[in-house]
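Attaching the record inline, Q. Sequence:
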Amino acid sequence: MSSRDGQNLFSNTAPWYDMDTARYSESDLAFYLEAADRAGGPVLELACGTGRVSIPLAEAGHEVWALDLSASMLTELARKAASLSPEVRNRLHVVQGSMSSFQIPQQFPLIIIPFRSFQALTDDRDTSGCLESVRRHLSAGGVFILDVFKVDYKEPMATTEIEHTDWERRDPRTGQTVRRARRMPAVDMEKQLIFPEVIVYTTNQDGSVARHVDTLALRFYYEYQLQILLATHGFKVDAAYGSYDKRPVATGTEFLYVCSHSVGVPALG
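Structure, as predicted:
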């Protein structure tokens, strides 16, 4: 993930990111693997993080460019990539940079921003810059997939100073007990921003405990806003789903949009 002000980099909690998102891999990886198979060419993943999606795509035989701003997240990606075969590593091209403005010297038949990472862009200049960069790098006839979590406009988000534990498990790499907690100390409904905290407690075998915290800033959207945003940046929504199993938007937790260049709007070279 990336943002103009340096938030959302998971600087303190990146080593445990995959433990937190493991359950999502069971649902979204098949969706992106199917899309990559259909695209039949190189894939660009923006805000790739630890390579949770990029590495399986490369393992499946796809040429993958993986871009992220966070040095901490890319350190975890490099650690995981070190155990891959040389053939897979050669298909994985890692780029450190911001998804709000990037230059890669080629175009792609498939560009993806999985797992709500687009929402880490909280500034209008960054969201526009990202979509303009995507359009510039998307080949003619290419597909752009955007995933954003859905909010209920009838129920404003609530703040809470109380920590809520999500899970606790053993880290097989270190032997530590890891407990993941969260809280929401601030919400800005006018600017449509939330500021959740990711909190990780690690307990060593000697009983000592360390607390690791990252405060995020995420922008939430209503459906009409996303449709306008995509249309004004030259994209047409070809399919909209509520989750990775392709259920209708109305019955899911996501706004999952499969997009292409708008008719009559040429791809940027």
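Residues 1-5 have pLDDT under 50 and may be disordered. The chain has two domains: 14-150+221-261, 160-218.

More tomorrow.
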